[in-house]
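[step 3/7] inverse_fold.run input=structure_tokens len=205
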């Protein structure tokens, strides 16, 4: 696996005016060859929801049969400085069954003391979400300079609907092989591979 990019390297990448979806892909894939493949499957959303002088916008989405990544831009009311190290929302993308809570990653921009932030939201799913009508329901923007000390910055609700029309570039390899581990039989059904993830699907009696 290629080494993970540092925060400084990701910031430099963003500031070189790369297309937003390229930046979204590169943050997770960390090499240009896989990024080029993933960019081809991205879908531009460009939908937003506003209330009380703040705006949440979904810019783009990419995904495969196991993960959905959203590029989010948030603008707070004038006078609010979004200059903390990390931000996250509560809520979820309603499109397919979730496996874990969504994760958020802040992309550092040129002005860390203004009222705007760009976030990547990662949503794992139990089933493919491609082609479904998604509803993003988020609330309570929280910020922190320490990952264990999040505090609510803005307590509002945002709701955005959009289709998940990205191209799923996953390749599924059927396996159907039974393995024994610690006295249990596990049947490995398939391996799914894409530029975004590798997933093993298995079941046991």
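[step 3/7] decode complete -> sequence:
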């Amino acid at each position: 696996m290629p080494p993970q990019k540092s925060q400084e390297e990701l910031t430099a990448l963003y500031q070189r005016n790369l297309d937003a979806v390229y930046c979204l892909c590169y943050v997770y894939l960390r090499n240009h060859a896989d990024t080029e493949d993933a960019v081809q499957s991205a879908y531009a959303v460009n939908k937003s929801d506003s209330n009380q002088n703040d705006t949440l916008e979904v810019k783009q989405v990419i995904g495969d049969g196991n993960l959905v990544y959203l590029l989010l831009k948030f603008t707070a009311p004038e006078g609010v400085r979004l200059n903390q190290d990390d931000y996250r929302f509560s809520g979820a993308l309603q499109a397919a069954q979730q496996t874990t809570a969504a994760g958020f990653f802040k992309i550092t921009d040129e002005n860390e003391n203004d009222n705007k932030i760009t976030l990547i939201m990662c949503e794992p799913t139990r089933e493919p979400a491609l082609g479904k009508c998604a509803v993003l329901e988020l609330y309570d923007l929280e910020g922190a300079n320490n990952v264990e000390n999040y505090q609510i910055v803005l307590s509002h609700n945002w709701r955005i609907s959009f289709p998940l029309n990205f191209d799923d570039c996953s390749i599924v390899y059927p396996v159907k092989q039974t393995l024994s581990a610690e006295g249990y039989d596990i049947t490995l059904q398939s391996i799914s591979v894409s530029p975004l993830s590798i997933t093993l699907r298995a079941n046991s009696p």
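[step 4/7] annotate
The chain is about 15% helix and 50% strand.
Residues 20-29 form the longest helix (10 residues).
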